[in-house]
Design goal:
The chain is mainly beta and about 270 residues long. It is built from three helices and 21 strands.
């Protein structure tokens, strides 16, 4: 029989979080929740972290290092990540890379005076949008969004600008690893709810979007360390129901079953 481990949820309050978190995640008594993390039993040794983000206003403008730069700074690995937009209010935006090439000096000055916000490539965001942020991509998440984020498992973020919030910035470290121009990625695009599609195929992790009974045809059959995240009700593993608001690990993805109309994400190390 396949193993199934329900991951601990870590609830993180944020000033940019929301009070209207879907009931499936729990009752937070009006607290402003920004993130819900799923803690892997392997702790910091787990290569992948999955979280939900709930935003009411713009997050900081930030950048992440690659593996080499992160290890040189004392971290176990770098941080590449991807976003799947689950829900978006009208006018919601994602910032991905810069709109035009610039210099480190100009970007440094813009981060200090706030004009960096006008240098970001802000994209209109809707449910189903998928974005992959390679290390070095300057990026930001706007308000009015519910997002599933799958990332390399490391708590390493270099903030370049934070809208006056009283948090530390990391200009020198961030600018040292930042790509100073546009940063499109061939994996970016729009995902239909009925798609069974491999969204990410390395270098750090793989990510599948699963939809309905047809998902059985794309599930990996070999044993592995899989992380399964329902996006709707109707998901199970070996007959055991996995609800929205939960995240589980399993060693056999072939035991996953989705009812008609059900959706989920499956991730595992590359």
């Amino acid at each position: 029989m396949p193993t199934l481990t329900r991951l601990e949820t870590i609830v993180v309050e944020k000033p940019w979080g929301r009070t209207d978190i879907p009931a499936a995640f729990g009752d937070f008594d009006g607290r402003r929740i920004g993130e819900i993390w799923f803690a892997h039993p392997a702790g910091e040794n787990a290569p992948i972290l999955v979280k939900f983000l709930f935003t009411s206003e713009r997050l900081s403008i930030q950048v992440h290092p690659d593996d080499d730069a992160a290890r040189a700074a004392g971290y176990p690995r770098g941080k590449e990540e991807c976003w799947l937009v689950v829900d978006a209010e009208p006018g919601a935006e994602l910032g991905v890379g810069l709109a035009a090439p610039t210099t480190r000096e100009a970007l440094h000055d813009a981060a200090l005076d706030g004009s960096i916000t006008g240098m970001i490539d802000w994209r209109h965001a809707e449910a189903g949008d998928f974005v992959y942020n390679r290390a070095g991509t300057i990026h930001a998440i706007g308000g009015g969004l519910t997002i599933v984020e799958v990332q390399q498992n490391v708590d390493c973020t270099y903030r370049l600008y934070d809208y006056g919030r009283p948090r530390e910035l990391h200009l020198d470290a961030g600018l040292a690893v930042a790509t100073l121009g546009p940063r499109p990625d061939p994996r970016d695009g729009r995902l239909a709810a009925a798609d069974n599609r491999l969204l990410v195929d390395g270098p750090h992790f793989r990510l599948l979007h699963l939809s309905g009974p047809a998902a059985a045809s794309v599930l990996p059959q070999e044993p592995g360390d899989f992380i399964f995240v329902p996006l709707s009700q109707g998901c199970s593993i070996a007959g055991e129901v996995v609800n929205v608001g939960e995240c589980v690990t399993t060693d056999h993805a072939g035991a996953i079953a989705l009812a008609p109309g059900a959706r989920a994400l499956l991730s595992w190390p590359a």
